Amino acid sequence: MKVQVKVFSSLQELSEKEVNLDLPDGATVSDVLYEMTRRSPGLSREILGPSGMPADHITILLNGRNIRHLAGPLTGLADGDLIAIFPPSGGG
User: Fold this and answer.
1) Calpha distance 27→11 (Å, rounded)
2) CATH architecture observed for domain 2-86
3) Pairing of strands 2-7, 18-22
4) Domain-by-domain residue ranges, the chain?
5) pTM (2 decimals)?
6) In terms of CB atoms within 10 Å, which of 26, 32, 44, 92 comes out highest?
7) For 43-73, how does the pLDDT look when each residue is reduced to its tens digit (9 = 90+)?
8) 62 neighbors 70 (Cβ within 8 angstroms)
């Protein structure tokens, strides 16, 4: 299956802005994160916590829905899905 991954803001300094991945059927968001950090090792320390799971301050959307409201990193993927990875944002 093919999925598209987009990395935003300051994370673009550590990775390609947009990546198309070819993953096996049954792949999860966790598999995407593994592949992205394998390709761009500097990304690992920014998006993963000590447990190897997504850090609390990172927002990951699957087709516009936050994976925290789905099955987290174990959320299953389908062909054509779009994953967006955002660093923390601030404002005031």
Assistant:
1) 23
2) Roll (3.10)
3) antiparallel
4) 2-86
5) 0.92
6) 32
7) 999 999 888 889 999 999 999 999 999 999 9
8) yes
